[in-house]
Amino acid sequence: MGSQETRVTKISKLQEKMPVSTECCLVQIHGPELGKKHVLDEDEFTIGRDVKNNIVIDLDNVSRRHAKISNRSGRHFVVDLGSTNGTYLNDEEVLEETPLRSGDHVKVGGSIFKFLQGGNIETLYHEEIYQLTIVDGLTQVNNKRFFLEFLEREMGRCHRYNRALSLIMFDIDHFKKINDNNGHLAGDYVLRELAHIVKQRIRREECFARYGGEEFAIVMPEAGPDNARRLAEKVRKLIEDHRFSFEGKDISVTISLGVADMTGDMTEPLQFIKASDTHLYKAKKAGRNRVVG
Asked: Residue 93 carries which DSSP code?
């Protein structure tokens, strides 16, 4: 048999010829159409209250033509269109046309969109929808559904092994006044900033969640009553001392907290929540900006 020449195919050359995917979309993670996907398959996409926009947001704090997403050579950019309340990218106001990266958050009035880009946009989208079932879109901490499931599971476990379980419920003092005096965008900022501050103090085995509106919860398995009350006081002081500043204006923020420990007769999460909420109510009646329980 004569010698045969071995042919070598360079895989890298083939990969270089494969087209780069530019699939992308915006997913609403906070706002009136939670979970809705908008595929960005045109060179320009406008966002606003007017029905002529590609993405229509029917909210009072959204301008008629609020923002625009542009696609140039596979790269996407966001720019504000002179809106009344501004457009925000990852909590920073957009002052000029700015490039978008996958995972960025775009805030338009009372709506927040997540920009997704990748080779399999459907997979990314479905992962994002799953996150929406357990994470609050505005504050990026766990939501009420996840909190209730976590609390029920930990109550069963701690009952079984006769271990301590503590629950802290707290809310923002005079939050309606913050909204009325500074606007709902400022209120959203306070919620996000507060959640960010507290989240850094939560251990991996604990749960921090937005229970609803301006109320939050912290579940502390096996920490013990003294540690729970120490954390509650630490969180109260952190919020009191933190400078909340929105668009150059300082906002005074304090919280009231109620702490409760699981007892042998508690079998349902709502019983535990009621005990902590009762102490929270007492903290507010006693003058706010304090821990009771």
From this structure: E
Catalytic residue (one of 128, 205, 214, 215): 214
The answer to whether 112 and 106 are in contact (CB under 8 A) is yes
Length of the chain: 293
Residue pLDDT, tens place only, 91-101: 999 999 999 99
Helix (H) or strand (E) holding 24: strand 24-30
Nearest Cα residue to 258 out of 216, 227, 222, 221: 216
Instruction: Say whether 214 is catalytic.
Output: yes
**Degrees to nearest 5, angle at CA 111 with 168 and 39:** 125
What pTM was computed for the model?
A: 0.81
* Helices (H), ranges, 165-224: 175-182, 184-199
Tens digit of each residue's pLDDT (9 = 90 or more) over 181-228: 999 999 999 999 999 999 999 999 999 999 999 999 999 999 999 999
